[in-house]
Amino acid sequence: MPAQQKKIIFCVAGVLSFACALGTAAALGTQLWVTGTILCKTGALLVNATGQELDKFIGKIQYGLFYGERVRQCGLGGRPFQFSFFPDLLKIIPASIHVSVILFCAVLMVFALVAAGFFMFNAFGSPYETLHGPVGLYLWSFIACCCGCLIIVLFSSEVKIHHLSEKIANFKEGSFTFKTHSEQFANSFWIVLVCSLVHFLNALLIRFAGFEFPFSKAKDPGTTTGAADLMY
């Protein structure tokens, strides 16, 4: 592949990696990882609520990796409550998994920036054979992709297997019991997933930059024929 096309591919990959670093940083600081609704089970059972009556006992919840908000509904209107994971919820959540998710997010940002820098260096500089060349680009992209996948797996297990939403909903609730009515992953979660896919795509772009296409091959001057050949 001509050098100009390789530069374009490496520039595109570098921009994508940099965008992933910014996206992960933005996602890390928001509370839009999980959104859902919570049912005040105790209140609904007390009045034997059914059908549309249950709407008066369904509140809302949304949270990220550091903080969140829940609105409890127990028949007397919504009551918002702000909470923080550190240090409020450390005793009721799987702290090791939660901290691991945050650490992998930080590692993902670092290696996304590293990958972006090396992509740009390969596009405009003179790459070394290992760290700056294809081996290094594969390495940085692979590490970033693995970190993104680990974030998705660990956070999903924390929410679904360890019932994180219910634990948060029942935080500091003595007489009332809350149950998850619905929950779904929000924008920040999907941003991290897209970043993982982008780093996998970057690995394909590295391989794509190594292909030679027929239309990109230069013509051999020795095989050129023309009117001068016909003269002899």
Automatic annotation (TrEMBL):
One of its GO terms (cellular component) is membrane. It is found in: Membrane. The keyword Glycoprotein does not apply. GO terms for biological process: equilibrioception; sensory perception of sound. The chain crosses the membrane at residues 97-123, 135-155, 189-209. It is a multi-pass membrane protein. Keywords: Membrane, Transmembrane, Transmembrane helix. Belongs to the clarin family. This is CLRN1 protein. It comes from Steatornis caripensis.
